[in-house]
Every structure is written in structure tokens, then in C-alpha cells.
TrEMBL record:
Pfam families: 5-FTHF_cyc-lig (PF01812). Belongs to the 5-formyltetrahydrofolate cyclo-ligase family. Its cofactor is Mg(2+). Its EC number is 6.3.3.2. It comes from the Bacteria. Keywords: ATP-binding, Ligase, Magnesium, Metal-binding, Nucleotide-binding. This is 5-formyltetrahydrofolate cyclo-ligase. It catalyses: (6S)-5-formyl-5,6,7,8-tetrahydrofolate + ATP = (6R)-5,10-methenyltetrahydrofolate + ADP + phosphate.
Length: 191
């Protein structure tokens, strides 16, 4: 129910809203020390009315940052591939899901995320504690569990619209807080 409410609000955004927000989010995110100092960033390609990531991906790539993007596996886990610019992505239709843009290069394996200095996580909301409400597929819960199991501690960052920073979201025992949220109006750190 809560996820549907956030998705409904997003569905009302215009193409102009999405373009403007993407540029602002990229500029704000690039100011984050966690991203400014990163050598490797695991990110994702936004779809539909998600806060746009393409401008940020291109800016990081241009800076020489190694950008890893997810490849969705049949069990909803994530493999990773390197982002080498716009031409390195292809649409992949996953059964029963929307088409995703994924890297076309050699898959690097699910453990490639362990090398990331920062991980950009998709989400629908974040609360005052830094708890993230995801889309419910569990892919990024697996990523976070993999990081925990390996003792890896990258900065965890979520890009959202201003209205998606709320007082409280539901929490499961396996959920982990993010370290920062980037919205069009600014950045908030939780650690």
C-alpha cells in the first residue's frame, strides 16, 4: 500500500520534471565527499519515473570513476558489469518485469560490488533514521547482505524526490540504514 502511494505520486511527474530533477540530483550527488573520493561506485540505471541517474553515471564515468551497474539474474540477485558510457547499455526484458538498461560487457560476478567505495541504492522513500523503503524485490537486500558478510563498508546513498523523505518507513530485521539521501533540495547524512 505504501509503495503504491509513492509510485502513484511519481507517475504524475512530467518529462520536464524528470529532466530537471535528474540534472539537480547529479550536481548535488557529485558534491558528496563519499562520491567525490570514490574510485568505484556501484549504481543503477533509473527507469520510468525514478529519480534520474543517467547524468550522474555519465559525470562519474567522465571523472574516471569505475561505475558498476547491475545485471538482474533470474533469482532476483544482481551480477554487475562496467559502465563505459551510453553505448555500453542495452535494454533487457526480464520475464514479468519492465525492461531494464544493463551493461553489455562481460559480467563481473555478484561479488564485484565488494570493491565499491559507494553504492547508490534505488528506493521509494527514506526515513529520519536512514531506513530505506525499496521496491520490494529483494535484490538490494541481497547486495547489502553480501556487503555485510564480506565486512565491506561502502557509503550507501539513495537518490529521492523531496516528498519521499518521511518520518518513518516500515522496517524488516534484515534492513540496513543508508548513510545519505540526495534530493533536489539538498543532502542529508545519517551517520
Amino acid at each position: 500500500m505504501l509503495r503504491r502511494a509513492f509510485l502513484t505520486v511519481r507517475s504524475r511527474l512530467t518529462a520536464d520534471d524528470l529532466r530537471e530533477t535528474e540534472a539537480v540530483l547529479a550536481a548535488r550527488a557529485l558534491e558528496l565527499p563519499e562520491l567525490a573520493q570514490a574510485h568505484t561506485v556501484a549504481a543503477y540505471v533509473s527507469v520510468g519515473s525514478e529519480p534520474g541517474t543517467r547524468a550522474l553515471l555519465d559525470a562519474l564515468h567522465t571523472r574516471g570513476v569505475r561505475v558498476l551497474l547491475p545485471v538482474l539474474l533470474t533469482d532476483n540477485d544482481l551480477d554487475w558489469g562496467a559502465y563505459e558510457g551510453e553505448g555500453s547499455l542495452a535494454p533487457v526484458q526480464h520475464r514479468g518485469k519492465m525492461a531494464l538498461l544493463e551493461p553489455v560487457g562481460e559480467p563481473l560476478g555478484p561479488d564485484a560490488v565488494l570493491s565499491a567505495d559507494a553504492v547508490l541504492l534505488p528506493g521509494l522513500a527514506v526515513d529520519a533514521r536512514g531506513m530505506r523503503l525499496g521496491r520490494g524485490g529483494g535484490s538490494y537486500d541481497r547486495v547489502l547482505a553480501r556487503l555485510d558478510a564480506a565486512g565491506a563498508h561502502p557509503a550507501l546513498v539513495v537518490l529521492l524526490y523531496d516528498s519521499e523523505v518521511v518520518d518513518r518507513v516500515p522496517e524488516e530485521p534484515h534492513d540496513r540504514p543508508v548513510h545519505a539521501v540526495v534530493t533536489p533540495s539538498g543532502v542529508r547524512h545519517f551517520r
